[in-house]
């Protein structure tokens, strides 16, 4: 099976087509914050690797030398990256070309793509809707055909949520499988970089290029595996778990699409079994407590001395809310009231997920509890956080989770989310492949 990216045109021609589409349509979609002015030069000099000619968008919280890693915030509006993140180095070494820096929620804090200092992104598939977030521009760029793939980051769903809403594939790898060196932290104990693509095969290929140990980052001692070569949709003997609790929290129109998708997995030989995740409802408050504390700590470097602006003076409402709450919880921590309890719940949720994954090989279910809202519709912070209910457990547990288009509800894409045991990315991708392309 081909383990490299295949192009219809020459790399130069292909890039020109992507740039042309961006020029015509991105005024409306707003997927990119900045384009790479050297892309055409770089494509001519690109090495003949496995990704030769692949046009890639990079989320604006990942360093790409010479481009701005703004995190879609005024805080870093003038920050030009002095180096390439390890993942970007690895993409370039295989011949991919960075076309630009994608839009996102400010500092990756959000689920809709609306909190960017550079304006919201539109969902290319349903233009009156949000694309999801926080990797809003990365998912939109792929869905709109501006790029073949994009890198996103996922702390609590930021790759999977927009992938689901935009009808593309997104993978959050096992924590520590992909080097975080060069990623600007939201919450370092949860953040992972991963691919967003149009199909499972390309996601597998990208993942095998960016995964694996790096000298620069402390991480799992895992070697990259040839996922794309070992992909198979044959699920004979694979046990797929569906949690009763998924049903409780998910809108019926989403459940309908997801259940049809499970029937297709059965048609490929899988056995679908019901499992229980009784602590699922605790995942959201646990996640947000941990994020507030870790994010508060990460933002202390933006005090105005190094990057120009003091974050509290220029950031948006959601980022400020998290800084204030993180500061409050940290002050109270001597009593162990919030953060320590959140860490206890984190262990409980992790244990429960791993126990469920002892009974089955993967868990499959919905990605978000509801469909994306209309752009401009006002949501309360708690309503916004509620989008993350089904995606944060994977981050809390450090396990891999991927999303593949499962169908549509009222014209809006719905993604099937697949969870696997730590480092079982291959099996997860196989299940995603079996569900793919059958809308
Ligand atoms: N929506 C979640 C949050 O706001 C997830 C963000 C992310 O994964 N970066 O924290």
Percentage of helical residues? 25-40%
What bound compounds does this protein have?
glutamine
- What is the ordering of alpha helices and beta strands? HEHEHEHEHEEHHEHHEHHHHEHHEEH
Give the C-alpha Rg: 20 Å
The largest sheet, given as strand count, sense and whether it forms a barrel, is: 11 strands, mixed
- The CATH homologous superfamily is termed Amidase signature (AS) domain
Q: Count the beta strands.
A: 11
Strand content: 5-15%
- The CATH architecture designation is Alpha-Beta Complex
Write structural notes for this entry.
The chain has one domain (11-436): Alpha-Beta Complex (Amidase signature (AS) enzymes), CATH 3.90.1300.10. The protein has 439 residues and is of the alpha/beta class. Strand 10 (401-409) and strand 11 (412-420) form a beta hairpin. The protein is globular. The protein has helices at residues 11-29, 39-45, 86-93, 136-143, 160-166, 200-210, 227-230, 244-249, 252-267, 283-299, 311-314, 317-332, 339-359, 381-385, 392-397, 425-435, and strands spanning 32-35, 55-59, 97-102, 149-154, 169-172, 192-197, 239-243, 271-275, 362-366, 401-409, 412-420. The model has no long low-confidence stretch (mean pLDDT 96). The structure holds glutamine. Residues 108-111, 134, 153-158, 186, 291, 388 line the site of glutamine.
């Amino acid at each position: 099976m081909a383990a490299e990216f295949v192009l219809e045109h020459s790399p130069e021609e292909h890039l020109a087509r992507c740039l042309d589409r961006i020029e015509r349509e991105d005024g409306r979609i707003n997927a990119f914050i900045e384009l790479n002015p050297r892309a055409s030069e770089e494509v001519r000099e690109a090495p003949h690797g496995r990704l030769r000619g692949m046009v890639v968008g990079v989320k604006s919280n990942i360093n790409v030398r010479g481009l701005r890693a703004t995190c879609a915030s005024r805080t870093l509006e003038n920050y030009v990256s002095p180096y390439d993140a390890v993942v970007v180095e690895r993409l370039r070494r295989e011949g991919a070309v960075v076309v630009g820096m994608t839009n996102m929620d400010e500092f990756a804090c959000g689920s809709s793509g609306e909190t960017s200092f550079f304006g919201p992104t539109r969902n290319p598939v349903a233009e009156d809707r949000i694309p999801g977030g926080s990797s809003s521009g990365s998912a939109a760029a792929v869905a709109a055909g501006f790029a073949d793939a994009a890198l996103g980051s996922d702390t609590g769903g930021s790759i999977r949520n927009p992938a689901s809403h935009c009808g593309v594939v997104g993978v959050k790898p096992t924590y520590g499988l992909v080097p975080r060196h060069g990623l600007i932290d939201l919450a370092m104990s949860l953040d992972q970089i991963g691919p967003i693509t149009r199909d499972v095969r390309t996601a597998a290929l990208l993942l095998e290029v960016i995964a694996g140990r790096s000298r620069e980052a402390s991480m799992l001692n895992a070697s990259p595996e040839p996922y794309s070569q070992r992909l198979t949709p044959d699920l004979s003997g694979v046990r797929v778990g569906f949690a009763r609790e998924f049903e409780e929290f998910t809108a019926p129109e989403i459940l309908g699409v997801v259940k049809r998708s499970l029937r297709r997995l059965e048609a490929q030989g899988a056995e679908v079994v019901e499992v229980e995740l009784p602590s699922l409802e605790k995942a959201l408050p646990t996640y947000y407590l941990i994020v507030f504390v870790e994010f508060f700590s990460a933002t202390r470097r933006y005090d105005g001395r190094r990057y120009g602006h003091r974050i509290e003076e220029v950031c948006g409402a959601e980022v400020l809310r998290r800084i204030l709450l993180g500061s409050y919880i940290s002050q109270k921590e001597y009593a162990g009231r919030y953060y320590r309890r959140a860490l206890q719940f984190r262990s409980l949720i992790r244990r429960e997920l791993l126990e469920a994954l002892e009974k089955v090989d993967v868990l499959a279910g919905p990605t978000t509890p509801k469909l994306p809202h209309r752009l401009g519709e006002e949501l309360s912070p708690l309503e916004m956080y509620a989008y993350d209910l089904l995606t944060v457990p994977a981050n809390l547990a450090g396990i891999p989770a991927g999303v593949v288009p499962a169908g549509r509800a009222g014209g809006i894409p719905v993604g099937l989310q697949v969870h696997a045991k730590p480092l079982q990315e291959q099996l997860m991708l196989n299940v995603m492949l079996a569900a793919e392309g059958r809308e």
